[in-house]
Design a protein that fits this description.
transcription regulation; Substrate-binding domain-containing protein; 40% helix; Rossmann fold; Peripla_BP_I; 6-stranded mixed beta sheet; DNA-binding; 6-stranded parallel beta sheet; alpha/beta
Length: 346
């Protein structure tokens, strides 16, 4: 039986180094067209198959994993990933976690299966990953980039790159806007306690209050989730207080819509009776009535940065930083205005 051709044999027949053959097999773009064609011709003639267990797809491919695909935030992040994929001639495969823990979700076997399909790396979006899962991804030889990670284990920072907006600054901007309008009793309807972005937004909110000498009132700070239904529940609690807020900062646009719905159900006028600020600037922010004042996250650019970064990792390049923060900005629309009863000077 003829022996199986090796990487060394392919390199010798093609007149190149083994490193060059490896670059061609892994879809690297730093190989000249003529050299690439020669190496590919030798691979075909010899019937060479990589011994790593990977097969090379027709085009370089990246897996994008969402905690939930069906929401406006995910749609805009995915738009950025896909746009960058088109620019880089990279295919994007989208998947998501099951509703429950799910067998095999982010398990070592799952990462090995992604690598075996020839994918270059994984982008995870708003998904919690343990240090063990990060190690499993690295062991499979996959680059890993996390967009708005729920949390970051300090022991994992050298094995993954994260991309997010400036959440603390965004929380600060939202609350400073309301303070500037004259509000002093401001509710916070935030994301879950375990969420790192939600925590950063809350800290920005509290910093803005502190800078104006407004004391923290724990009754006004709620942290339940980023869904529309979470916004409804938190608004109902805030608006049932003996002294309800005159304004609310929501953790995201979806929960801000829930706050708006709960306020309307009580017959409140927006923004005359209640001002509301969201976070993200999703498409829905301009579809509401009144249009939603919100903190704009560069979600499309976050997706683009993540795709470009995972390709760099796959090519063995070191990232410029292990945490990219893209600037947020406040977009003022019609859902905010001065309070009906001006607050007394602090």
């Amino acid at each position: 039986m003829a022996s199986r051709p090796t990487l060394e044999v392919v390199a010798r027949e093609a007149g190149v180094s083994k490193a060059t053959v490896s670059k061609v097999i892994n879809g690297r773009d730093d190989v000249g067209p003529a050299t690439r064609e020669r190496v590919q011709a030798v691979i075909a003639a010899l019937g060479y198959m990589p011994t790593t267990g990977r097969r090379t797809p027709a085009a370089p491919t990246v897996t994008v994993l969402f905690d939930a695909v069906v929401n406006l935030y995910s749609a805009q992040v995915l738009s950025g990933v896909v746009t960058a994929g088109i620019e880089q001639a990279v295919d994007v495969v989208v998947t998501h976690l099951p509703a429950g823990p799910g067998p095999g979700a982010l398990s070592p076997a799952w990462f090995r299966s992604v690598a075996a399909r020839g994918h270059l790396g994984v982008i995870v979006v708003t998904t919690e990953m343990s240090a063990q899962q990060v190690r499993s991804c690295a062991s499979a030889g996959l680059g890993l980039v996390a967009i708005d990670p729920v949390s970051i284990d300090p022991s994992s920072t050298d094995r993954m790159v994260s991309v997010s907006g400036t959440n603390w600054s965004g929380g600060l901007q939202a609350t400073e806007h309301l303070l500037g309008l004259g509000h002093r009793r401001i509710g916070f309807a935030g994301g879950p306690v375990a969420s790192r972005p939600a925590e950063q937004r809350l800290h920005g909110h509290l910093a803005a209050l502190g800078s104006r000498g407004v004391p923290r009132d724990d009754a006004l700070v709620l942290r339940e989730g980023f869904a529309y239904e979470d916004g409804v529940r938190m608004a109902e609690r805030l608006l049932s207080l003996p002294e309800p807020p005159s304004a609310v900062v929501a953790g995201c646009d979806a929960s801000a819509l829930g706050v708006m719905a709960a306020a309307r159900a009580r017959g409140l006028r927006l923004p005359q009776d209640l001002s509301i600020v969201g976070f993200d600037d999703t498409y829905a922010a301009e579809w509401t009535a009144p249009q939603l004042t919100t903190v704009r996250q560069p979600m499309v650019e976050m997706g683009r940065v993540a795709l470009r970064t995972v390709l760099r990792l796959a090519h063995g390049d070191r990232p410029d930083t292990h945490h990219f923060e893209l600037a947020t900005s406040l977009v003022v629309r019609a859902s905010t205005g001065p309070p009906a009863v001006p607050a007394q000077p602090a």
